[in-house]
Structure formats: C-alpha cells, structure tokens
Sequence to fold (412 residues):
Amino acid sequence: MSTLIINIKELLQIREPNVIKVSGEEMKTLPSIKNAYLLIQDDTISDFGPMDQCPSLTAEETIDATGKIVMPTWCDSHTHIVYAGNREQEFVDRINGLSYEDIANRGGGIVNSAAKLQNTSEEELYNQSVARVKSVIKLGTGALEIKSGYGLTTEAEMKMLRVIKRIKQEFPIEVKATFLGAHALPKEYKENKEGYVDLIINEMLPQIAKENLANYIDVFCEKGYFSLEDTERIMEAGKKYNLQSKIHVNQFNAFGGIALSVKHNALSVDHLEELNDDDIQALKGSSTMPVALPSCSYFLSIPYSPGRKMIDAGLPLALASDYNPGSTPSGNMNFVVSTACIKMRLTPEEAINAATINGAYAMGISNAYGSITKGKKANLIITKQVPSYNYLPYSFGENLIEKVLINGKAVE
Ligand SMILES: N=CN[C@@H](CCC(=O)O)C(=O)O
Ligand SMILES: [Zn+2]
Fold:
C-alpha cells in the first residue's frame, strides 16, 4: 500500500536517522520543508522533499494537504491511562480547599484508585482504558508509555500490566509498559514500608519479568511515598531484570532523587516541578531525559517545571501528559504543548521538539518514532488549514487535527 501526501504547506520535524534527542539551543530549531510531499510505503516513511521534486508516480492513495501542516504524531512518554473509575469527588474537594496532600492523608489519592481497580474485572478495566486510548490517538498521539501502579497488590499490578499488554497487542500505536509498584503505600503496609518494598522486589518483579510484562521500572520518589533508599533498592532490583528506570521525582520536594536517578542511568526523570541548581547540574552531560508534565501543574495548581531554565542551561526536555485520574485527567498532548508555551515559556519549536523526538527518546523508541525520517514509522498528524505551526499552540483548546495516520493508515 502506498500513500502520497502532496502540497503540504509545511512538513515539520525532519531529522537525520542519527538524531535521537535534541538539547538546549538545538531545541530552538524545527527543521522543515515548505510546499512539500511525503510518500508512505506500507507503514513506513519512504521519501519526502519539496513539491517541485515530487516523483511522478501513482500511489494507491493521494492526500492533498494544501494549507495544512504534516508532522510526526506526539510521543507521550508518561501516562497512567489504565485506571478504573475516576476521582471527580477529589477534584471538588480540592476546589473546596483540601490539598492533594490532605486528600492522600485522608486515605484518598492513589490508594483510592487502587481500591477501585482491585474491585474492577480485567475485562472492564480494559474497556475503560481502551476508550481513553482511542480518544488520545484521535488527538494525535502515536506512541504511549503506560504505567502500572494503581494495583498495589501482586495480583492487581499483574492485572494492570496484562491490560497494558493487551492494548499493546490490539492497537497499532507503539506502547511501552512501566512497572510502578512503588506508587503509594497500601493501607496494609502503612507501618511496614520495608515489607512493601520487599514485596515489590521479591514477589512482584520476578513474576512480571517472567511474563515479560514490563519494559521499564518506576518509583514515586517523594516525601511521604518512597525515599531515596527505597528508590535505589528498586532501581537496582529492576536492573537485574534489565528494566531501566523512569522515575517520578521532584513533584513536591527536591531532595536528591535526580542525582540518584542519573547515577543509576535512568532513561528519564519525570515531573520536576521543584527543581534546584544541583538537579540541573546532575542532569548535565547525562543520558537521562528530564520530562515535564504541564497538565499536572495546571490541574493541581502547583508550580510548572522550569523548562525555560533547563533548556537555557543546555539540557534536553521532553513533554508528556501524565494522563491519570488524580492529578491529570487528560491525555491531550495538544494542550500539553500549548501549556508548555504559555506557562513554561517554551517556543513552539521547543515544545514540538519536546513532545515528539524527545518524547520518543524518553520511551526508548526514537530510532523509529518522533521525526520525519526515511525508514521511520509513518505515524503522522495532518492538521486542518492553519496560518503556520505557531498557530497550533497559540489557538489552545481548539482541535486543529484533521487526520491522524498510524503506520500509514488513517485512524477512523
Ligand atoms: N505523582 C504520582 N503519580 C501520579 C498521580 C497519581 C494520582 O494522583 O493518582 C502523577 O504522576 O501525577
Ligand atoms: Zn505520573
């Protein structure tokens, strides 16, 4: 099957195959071709260039993209999209004055979602999650990392990871699974955190590894959740099963989790709403991708990650949605990109780089996703007619996506 897209107003994010992430100054540039064509063979980008060099071939399908932007789909490297029910009551409680921390201390928060998930069948959990996955694909997401962490028992964590596996098998988008057993302390372990970390290491991890249910391992490294020592134990245990880490860190407090994650060669450190100069120093020259989650800051009214400062310090930055029922009940990456521009002062070029090639890096897939490169997967967004790509983050809240192609095929 071949598809030829012609008269593209601007083809965005064209990269050589060796570019797997962009950092600092490089993020200011979004290489593009104006008035372009792009050819897809089966599921792969096979050729592209300026219209005046468009080969005279007859493709099985031709799409006229006059006035429209074509770009890679979003790579959302941090989600908790598999969950049961919702936490709309906590949303109202926060409006009425309770903080995220108050709610967690009252037995709400993550353990509230865990109770719901434990009482939901695997089939029902799959059905609820699939509805969200379908909706984010329509919003332009073509690669998705999904975490466990609302199970908090061996059985329920396995249930979540099996649902993620099924999504991986049944959807054409790229899916990576992350084991986040250390998301919160279950009530039964309230006075025995070490016992729960032992359970994660000695029971959950071996079973998950045996069934090959996870690609990465994560810990919520935060005061009141898991300490540096807990995080280090879990990262080291993950390494024994070849699970590289992606760590929730610096959401509410900065206390050395970033340096620890870098020391253990984490693929990414995520959240970073509270970031100090030592954290920035620790990230410099490392292979660990910092990931900001601006929709979470928006929804919880907490500080935005200092993305401007990180990029100005020469660091790379990725943007992800954090789609979850408690802190971010939205997986809309278009909103994430707009919010990063509006609230974190990223330029549109920086924000688009952060949500495509750098997002792909933060989930270990930038060899095949995240840019317009010959041989990469034909996962593409075709926008509606727009004045320029700046208009995409500018016109926040408006759906400017006309068509999404995944593996070369239009999403219905
Ligand atoms: N901070 C930790 N985990 C999720 C929120 C979990 C929840 O509130 O359910 C996050 O990334 O924001
Ligand atoms: Zn998260």
Observations:
- Residues 75-361 form a domain with the TIM Barrel fold (CATH 3.20.20.140).
